[in-house]
Write a structure and sequence with these properties.
The protein is an all-alpha fold. The protein contains 20 helices and no strands.
Length: 435
């Protein structure tokens, strides 16, 4: 690390905290000690993984085992699709065959680990650490810890008995935590999208995506508690109780249920990508036509030195989100490309943005390759996009119908908070990064 990068990272973190502060509903009641502890935990954990040798070795081992697991699970895809599952053939990398089955398999594995009680014990440990260090209620810390491994609608199941009685501050934390974290069921898909068929590249992305998933937990807490502080912390119950209910009647039933849930998620991801990709191309065609009629296209080509062919969403996203890209430490020559990716994630989803990033990596679009790639890998993690607002309202309200109004009211704030939390993890990673 060097002094300039540390200073830039601290400026970025402070600016993101300031943005959260501007959206706060009760600025006088913010617990700044909690904010300081949360930022400290993010930096210390990231430092440990990237700079402390034995911790780095442990996480490198975990990431390599994760990659090995992906390779083993791919055998199921090979059985069903045969030669079509070989990305080395002429058809190369087919998203529906290489990525979507991974979501199904990891969903089934998560269900099995939940049935065996292993996932609950790991979540309890993380919840205990968060509760003790950041003084959260047991339900809040457990939900946030569960989001490290589970999706934004699965994690609240672990605190279902407490949902109905939660106040808006606690509900917002659950929503922000869901949008800021990366579920285990999609982690393998991200690794495959970015790492392709190279085990070394896969291990690299697995390491940093696992790191992001953990440090995004305190980031989500910090942002949500700035935006909506607890009205009366003395009323918070500190006890952490993990529900004893298990998923399924036996292990096979749990695997079957997890497979079904994974299939629904995979189909939903595929359908969303088909629709949004088509809509983006339609919008670009309309914008290009407008640019042609108004002579904007020629001006844009000259102005951007042929970087863009004319008026497009890529151009608009790039310039609109470029300040945020700079804020999180992106080298100046790549802020337009990273800004475009940030816009795609928020407006469409993270799968689409990671798909675009994969193309950028193959085409060497990012000039400061190593650092920009690291930062944007962290920034694009999580489920902070507009579609997630509807997913959370529909999913969480089935567990506590009386919270539907609060979920609807807090939707946009949760989206902003989840986005800021993801940007904070990217900022920390960029600050600690050293070529």
């Amino acid at each position: 690390m060097n002094g300039i990068e540390i200073l830039r990272g601290l400026i970025g973190l402070s600016s993101l905290i300031l943005i959260s502060y501007l959206f706060s509903n009760n600025k006088k009641n913010i617990n700044w000690k909690l904010v300081a502890v949360g930022c400290f935990l993010q930096i210390m954990f990231a430092l440990g993984v990237m700079k402390v040798n034995f911790i780095h070795i442990v996480f490198q081992w975990i990431s390599s085992r994760f990659v090995s697991l992906i390779g083993i699970f791919h055998k199921g895809t090979e059985f069903l699709f045969g030669n079509l599952s070989d990305p080395g053939q002429a058809w190369a990398f087919v998203f529906a065959i290489q990525v979507l089955p991974t979501i199904i398999i990891f969903s089934a594995l998560s269900a099995l680990l939940y049935y065996l009680g292993i996932l609950q014990k790991i979540c309890w440990l993380f919840a205990w650490l968060l509760s003790k260090s950041m003084k959260l209620s047991g339900a809040e810390s457990l939900s946030t810890a569960a989001n490290i491994f589970l999706g934004q609608t699965e994690a609240p199941i672990m605190i279902r008995p407490y949902l109905a009685a939660m106040n808006k501050s606690e509900i917002l934390l659950i929503m922000v935590g869901g949008m800021a974290n990366t579920a285990g069921s999609v982690l393998g898909a991200y690794v495959q999208m970015l790492g392709g068929t190279d085990p070394t590249a896969q291990s690299y992305y697995a390491l940093h995506l696992l790191t992001q998933s953990i440090i995004s937990a305190p980031a989500a807490i910090v942002v949500s508690k700035i935006m909506f502080p607890n009205p009366d912390e003395s009323n918070l119950k500190r006890e952490i109780k993990v529900p004893k209910s298990s998923l399924g009647r036996n292990a096979l039933d749990a695997i079957s249920m997890g497979t079904t849930d994974g299939l629904k998620l995979a189909v939903n991801v595929g359908a969303m990508l088909i629709v949004f990709t088509a809509l983006i191309y339609l919008t670009d065609a309309l914008l290009l036509k407008i640019g042609s009629l108004t002579q904007l296209n020629a001006m844009i080509v000259d102005w951007t030195n042929h970087r863009y062919d004319g008026l497009s969403l890529r151009l608009l996203f790039g310039y609109l989100f470029a300040p945020l890209a700079w804020l999180i430490g992106t080298p100046i020559q790549d802020i337009l490309a990273v800004g475009q990716l940030l816009g795609e994630k928020m407006m469409v989803n993270e799968f689409y943005a990671y798909g675009t990033l994969s193309k950028m990596l193959n085409e060497n679009v990012l000039q400061a390759f190593s650092k920009s790639t690291l930062i944007v890998t962290y920034a694009l993690s999580g489920f902070a996009n507009f579609a997630s607002i509807g997913i959370q309202i529909g999913g969480i309200s089935t567990l506590a119908e009386n919270q539907r109004e609060n979920l609807s009211i807090l939707g946009i704030k949760a989206l902003i908070g989840g986005t800021i939390a993801c940007l904070m993890t990217a900022c920390v990673a960029g600050m600690i990064y050293q070529a």
